[in-house]
Design a protein that fits this description.
about 190 residues, 7 helices
């Protein structure tokens, strides 16, 4: 009987906003992403540059992914256990992951805009030079390099950095939320 009373007292998910928890963990994810970017810039180990050691790229990738997973899992866990009375659906878990990813993507996207315009304004030129050098090493002709740079040149636009950060955050948050939500879901028992 005690379990039924607990289930009957569990809040209706429609009346509980996921935004406060999503905002908290999205800011944590975005903030640690900013910290990793600053560390990479200050130590001259930027994983986005083509000539960075593959092992460093792997380490930054694992750290970034681990932080993303931790933030989404903790957001779903807090939302389920502290705000929804211990129950959460798969859809709600996916929604939480997407919300966390949206906030993180917005934070990192805005930071990258600031980073490429103010903190490291030579980033785009550095990327272009490294890519042209790789194309030359591959034996591409000058006109082929020019054409290829026309295709990838938009990626160096600061607005593209903002949009890319936002899309990446939402996509990652959704995927992690899908997997974590499937594992962490807990349906409320049916009441009489």
């Amino acid at each position: 009987m005690e379990n039924l009373d607990f289930v009957n007292n569990a809040p209706n998910p429609k009346n509980v906003s996921m935004w406060p928890t999503g905002l908290r963990y999205g800011l944590i994810w975005g903030g640690t992403g900013i910290l990793l970017t600053l560390v990479a810039f200050l130590t001259n180990t930027d994983p986005s540059l083509p000539d960075t050691n593959i092992a460093l790229k792997f380490v930054y990738g694992i750290l970034g992914f681990g932080i993303a997973v931790w933030c989404v899992v903790m957001a779903i866990k807090q939302h389920r256990d502290q705000e929804l009375g211990g129950f959460i659906s798969l859809g709600r878990g996916m929604g939480m992951g997407t919300t966390v990813g949206l906030i993180a993507g917005l934070v990192t996207g805005v930071y990258m805009l600031l980073h490429v315009l103010v903190i490291n304004p030579g980033w785009a030129d550095q990327m272009r030079s490294a890519i042209v050098e790789q194309y030359e090493e591959m034996g591409m002709a000058e006109d082929q390099i020019e054409q290829a740079m026309g295709f990838v040149g938009y990626m160096f636009n600061p607005v593209a950095q903002l949009v890319g950060g936002l899309i990446n955050g939402v996509f990652m948050g959704f995927l992690i939320g899908l997997i974590a939500g499937a594992i962490m879901k807990r349906d409320a028992p049916k009441t009489l």
